[in-house]
Amino acid sequence: QVQLVESGGGLVQAGGSLRLSCTASGDTFSIYGMGWFRQAPGKDREFVAAISWRGDSTYYADSVKGRFTISRDNAKNTVHLQMDSLKPEDTAVYYCAAERSVSWYRTYGFQGSYDYWGQGTQVTVSS
């Protein structure tokens, strides 16, 4: 089993920055890839970014490309999401997720591909 805990959410003004963190514990050796998703009130959960557990492959949704950066801290079993130039439309609950299969390379953008999820952290961007 894998446990995921997100942190770093909060309230920020448009144009500002936040860094989210997701720390994995348990059977972390089984993780192949990690993803960040977000869900705004009244909307479906959507893909934000993904990274291989080794940190050698990254993927981004078009809506955040160039503004968000996903990275891996190998020493702490932690994945970060650096969010710059934040917009009000970025307001959502952000979730991290872990996938155990190598098929992650084909399905990293789909919610159903992931085996474990964190509790979520709220990000609010004011205009």
Overview of this protein structure:
The chain is mainly beta and 127 residues long. 3% of the residues lie in helices and 50% in strands. The chain contains 1 helix and 11 strands. Strands 2, 4, 5, 6, 9, 10 and 11 form a 7-stranded mixed sheet that branches. Strands 1-3-8-7 form a 4-stranded antiparallel sheet, with no helix packed on it. The N and C termini lie far apart (40 Å).
In short:
The protein has one helix spanning 104-107, and strands at residues 2-7, 10-13, 18-26, 33-39, 46-52, 58-60, 68-73, 78-83, 92-99, 116-117, 121-126. It has 127 residues and is mainly β.
- How many strands? 11
- Tally of helical segments: 1
- The proportion of residues forming helix, as a percent range, comes to under 10%
As a percent range, the share of strand residues is over 45%
User: What's the quaternary structure here?
Assistant: single chain
Radius of gyration, taken over Cα atoms and rounded to an integer in Å: 13 Å
Overall form:
globular
Given as residue ranges, the uncertain stretches (5+ residues, pLDDT < 50) are none
The string of secondary-structure elements, in order, is: EEEEEEEEEHEE
What's the N-to-C terminus distance?
40 Å
What structural class is derived from the secondary structure elements? mainly beta
Biggest sheet features: 7 strands, mixed
Task: Give the averaged pLDDT, no decimals.
Answer: 96
